[in-house]
Amino acid sequence: MENSLHNKFGKRNLWKRIKNRIRPVRYWYKYCQQKFGSRPFSSPETRAKFKKAFENHSRIQHLGNQPAQGQVEKLRKQGYLFVGKDNQEIQLRNDIAVNLVKYIEKDPVYNPNSKQYLKHLNPMALSGDDRELIYKFMAQDYFLNLATQYLGEYPLLVELKVLISPAIEKSEYSGSQLWHSDFDDEKNLKIFHFLKDVDIECGPLQVLSKEKSQKIMDDRGFVWGSNISHDDSLVNENDHLVETCTGVAGDTILIDTVNCLHRGSRSNRKPRYILYATYNTRSSFRFPPYHKLLPWKYSSINEFTVPLIDFDPEMAFLKQEAVNI
Ligand SMILES: O=C(O)CCC(=O)C(=O)O
Ligand SMILES: [Fe+2]
């Protein structure tokens, strides 16, 4: 297949690929050590605790709040879905959004190592109650349903952040300011929830439909991490299929950032504040895809390779990149 995953990796990225598969195992071990004081599976008690944690996965059968008819189809077809404030099943409590903006504006604890144009609030700056409510909002059944149906399995929440795109002088664009596909998996689902109105001056996210993006990536022989992986020449500025995601506070956009070319945080004259989450499959490059190598009867090992998002939401904030381990 021309557009196979293998091609997207390219030979040069083999090491990156290996590292991405080792990394989660390392985090996972660390998690077990912190949480249980022992390495995974080292005692029957530990195994029993894990078993209990994983029972939560049966929750999938009990998810309420199904997305409206047509929303999943639209998401599948376009690769993104706009869920306006008014047709959103559950809204972030207004006081939480207000609190977040207050935190950001009062004393932003920006990650000093992050990009100039895209920073995030240290979740530890928030109160425990706020963190829990944010988590609950992003892990609400409505989003879980969409992610489950889109990804074809009960998903993992691997990122949960408050993104801040500060107002910046126009400079050379780089990284995610340029058209790109995310280095994650065959597909993913990101949620951008607007904490404040996002207009054209806030460096809104721009997205190209899945179908069009795939065609471009095929035609251009797109390779993750190559010198064309982030490149404005991938997409024609004036393509009528480019969607610019502006909206009002409370609006949400869901997007598969692997399959849809996208960019954002460009030329902000005003800052943009987004509550942001990423759902991945269990076999994403960030998590060990052992189950794909195993015969089905052993696939329950899956349960032991998956991270623990339902298990301990508080831990979700320990690691910003892999919040659930
Ligand atoms: O700043 C933006 O909106 C782009 C973010 C992005 O590329 C991503 O979250 O994958
Ligand atoms: Fe991206």
Task: List the main descriptive attributes of the protein structure presented here.
binds fe (ii) ion; binds 2-oxoglutaric acid; 6-stranded antiparallel β-sheet; alpha+beta; 10 helices; 3-stranded antiparallel β-sheet; disordered C terminus; Jelly Rolls; 325 residues
Question: Can you offer a commentary on this structure?
Answer:
The protein is an alpha+beta fold and 325 residues long. It has one domain: Jelly Rolls, CATH 2.60.120.620. 31% of the residues lie in helices and 14% in strands. A six-stranded antiparallel beta sheet has the order 1-7-4-9-3-2. The model is unreliable at 56-61 and 287-325 (pLDDT under 50). The chain binds 2-oxoglutaric acid and fe (ii) ion. Fe (ii) ion binds next to loops.
Explain briefly what this protein structure is.
The protein is α+β, with helices and mostly antiparallel strands and 325 residues long.
Please give the structural blueprint.
Layout: H1 5-9, H2 14-36, H3 44-55, H4 71-78, E1 80-83, H5 94-106, E2 119-120, H6 128-138, H7 141-151, E3 156-165, E4 189-194, E5 205-208, H8 210-220, E6 242-245, E7 252-255, E8 262-263, E9 272-280, H9 290-293, H10 302-305
Antiparallel strand pairs: 1-7, 2-3, 3-9, 4-7, 4-9, 5-6, 5-8
The structure holds 2-oxoglutaric acid and fe (ii) ion.
